[in-house]
Amino acid sequence: MADKKNAVQLPRPTAVEVEFAQQLVERAKADGVSLVGPGGFLAGITRTVLESALDAELDAHLDEAGVDETTGRRANVRNGHGAKTVQTEVGPVRIQVPRDRVGSFTPRIVPKHARRLDGFNEAILSLYAKGLTTGEISAHLADVYDAEVSRELISRVTDSVLDEMEAWRQRPLDRIYPVVFIDALVMKIRQGQVANRPVYVVVGISLDGERDVLGMWAGSGGEGAKQWAGYLTELRNRGVEDAFMVCSDGLKGMTTAIEQVWPQAVHQQCVVHLVRASLRYTNRKDWQKIIPALREIYTAPTVAAAEARFEAFAAEF
């Protein structure tokens, strides 16, 4: 049985949070980007955040124990780690839980014996997206814990996790990515009050075919060429000298920004968004026929085959 007294009471997902999760799954399916599952991006960063938070919790617990007056030594110290798998919204995550010698440490973010942790996705992504204040990040973590946790502990966990996040955000990248995907997810951000903000995610496909999340930025929704050039320049400064193709939807100023940073790259509008845009000019009753027909065009093995299928599509519809 889990320790109910100390267990984290996570709120039920809101309609926006459900929509947010659906967006993640949709992008993963559309682009082939492994965001979820044991090897997905979210599982990896969830593990990092949980382990950093657990370490910060234990440090706070050890500080509370103080010093043994008889020996002059700390009354309680670290005593290794224990492996544990927790089920999350993004799949199973294997974590290392720190232990203390006395055995009095009771984690709050992952309670003893707990095997499931829900409602953590938005807090995780808020940590990785540049453009949020420390206060906004702390607010997300406070929601994940509960009102009973002290501000000091939230601050300590935030500081610990931010160090890990900054290292991830500044890590060197490959020189070339044949394909780069850029998309926006919508999530709730606390700015005095809760408001929806886009989080822009850039995913690169390496020369070895590996997928890597290159960066994340919290935007305002009104980004133009200047802001996009700044985001892409940051990636170039971290080592990305060129990209062969950049796929995105019709984000304002994106083509101009790509031409400035990677002049030889081709800007390809996201196929999913092109299909959606095409459907706006059709009757819903025809979608069951139109969508498979469009798929035959953009999945054609050659240009000639695509042109032939397009002609057949035009003749039918």
What does this structure look like?
With 317 residues, this protein is an alpha/beta fold. It contains ten helices and seven strands. It folds into three domains: 15-169, no CATH class; 176-273; 282-316. The chain has a five-stranded mixed β-sheet, with helices on both faces. A two-stranded antiparallel ribbon has the order 1-2. The termini are far apart.
Described by the principal axes of the CA atoms, the overall outline is: elongated
Spans of at least 5 consecutive residues with low confidence: 1-21, 31-38
What count of structural domains?
Answer: 3
Query: How many β-strands, per DSSP?
Result: 7
Please report the number of helical segments: 10
The structural class is: alpha/beta
Nearest-angstrom radius of gyration? 23 Å
Tell me the strand order in the biggest sheet. 5-4-3-6-7
Order of helices and strands: HHEEHHHEEEHEHEHHH
First CA to last CA: what distance? Answer: 60 Å
Q: How much strand content do the residues show?
A: 15-25%
Range of helix content:
40-55%
Mean pLDDT: 79
Keywords: DNA recombination, DNA-binding, Transposable element, Transposition
Protein name: Mutator family transposase
Function: Required for the transposition of the insertion element.
InterPro entries: Transposase_mutator
